Amino acid sequence: MRVVILENAKAVANFGADKIASLIKTKPQCTLGLATGSTPIKLYQQLIEQYKSQQLSFSDVSTFNLDEYLGLDGLHPQSYRYFMNENLFDHIDIDKRNTYVPIGNTSHPDQACFEFEQTLKSKGGVDLQLLGIGRNGHIGFNEPSSSLTSRTRVKTLTEDTINANKRFFKKEEFQPHLAITMGIGTISEAREVLLLATGYDKADAIQNAVEGPLAARCPASILQLHPNVTFVIDEKAAQKLQDIAFYKHIERENMRLKERTAR
Ligand SMILES: N[C@@H]1[C@@H](O)[C@H](O)[C@@H](COP(=O)(O)O)O[C@@H]1O
């Protein structure tokens, strides 16, 4: 488990974008696991800039998104399909047929979840999974008490999550209380995981995820078992970690080692 603490949200976005860009350069046909929410927006902007300046092509990349609101179709401005089109897909050269977001407007959600898992499997799984984190420690829409080995399925959202996401909906607008989400077991199978968090709001969740016990109360704590996970967080989100000095020390040591081996 690697904990990278950076100065601010911009540095977090740069770090994440560089990771994704270097994966695409070494493996143009890679499969990315993508997230929504406000946290990855700056990272997506960086990727768009790299595409526009011809440093990066997404033409052979496939993507799988973590989650979608149940009951919203992809044309609904608050749907996660719409979010992905607006914030990334419409601005790069990705083939949209290779972009998979769980289908929210289905009358057969269990079947949709099963097919999502099957498609992910047929594509060989996720190379790099990008994650945000909810204030209560959720990843995707796996709320506290989710099974730590769960697969893609329908989940009920907590009041805290509904309130946190209210800002995206208009006052009288229907806000779904259910969502389809990749399971925690599904997420854990990604070959590499990058979790981004910024701001004081996320400090408790980060402390529980990184230093708390492995527990369904904090779904992100499952990442402690992952062999290739990096938490990329800003100083504000890091403020409740007990071992900040040690995490920073490790990063400095790693940097020195890199410089020495590069000589
Ligand atoms: N389902 C999404 C999560 O994938 C995301 O990580 C979380 C945090 O969002 P934000 O980045 O806006 O804080 O919000 C939603 O609940």
Automatic annotation (TrEMBL):
Q: Does the keyword Hydrolase apply?
A: yes
Q: Tell me what controls its activity.
A: Allosterically activated by N-acetylglucosamine 6-phosphate (GlcNAc6P).
- The top EC class, named as a word, is hydrolase
The protein's GO terms of the molecular function aspect are: glucosamine-6-phosphate deaminase activity
Q: Which reaction does it catalyse?
A: alpha-D-glucosamine 6-phosphate + H2O = beta-D-fructose 6-phosphate + NH4(+)
Residues annotated as the enzyme's active site: D67 (proton acceptor), N136 (for ring-opening step), H138 (proton acceptor), E143 (for ring-opening step)
- CDD domains with a match to the protein in the record: GlcN6P_deaminase
Please give the Pfam families that the UniProt record associates with this protein. Glucosamine_iso
What EC number(s) is this enzyme filed under? 3.5.99.6
Q: Which UniProt keywords apply?
A: Allosteric enzyme, Carbohydrate metabolism, Hydrolase
**Residue numbers for the site described as Part of the allosteric site?**
S146, R153, K155, T156
Domain Glucosamine/galactosamine-6-phosphate isomerase span(s) in chain numbering: 9-224
Q: Which domain of life is it from?
A: Bacteria
Pathway listed for it is: Amino-sugar metabolism; N-acetylneuraminate degradation; D-fructose 6-phosphate from N-acetylneuraminate: step 5/5
Q: Would the keyword DNA damage be found if you checked this record's keyword annotation?
A: no
Entry similarity comment: Belongs to the glucosamine/galactosamine-6-phosphate isomerase family. NagB subfamily.
Subunit = Homohexamer.
What is the role of this chain?
Catalyzes the reversible isomerization-deamination of glucosamine 6-phosphate (GlcN6P) to form fructose 6-phosphate (Fru6P) and ammonium ion.
Matches recorded under NCBIfam families? nagB (TIGR00502), PRK00443.1-4 (NF001684)
Q: Name the chain's protein.
A: Glucosamine-6-phosphate deaminase
Which organism is this entry from? Reinekea marina
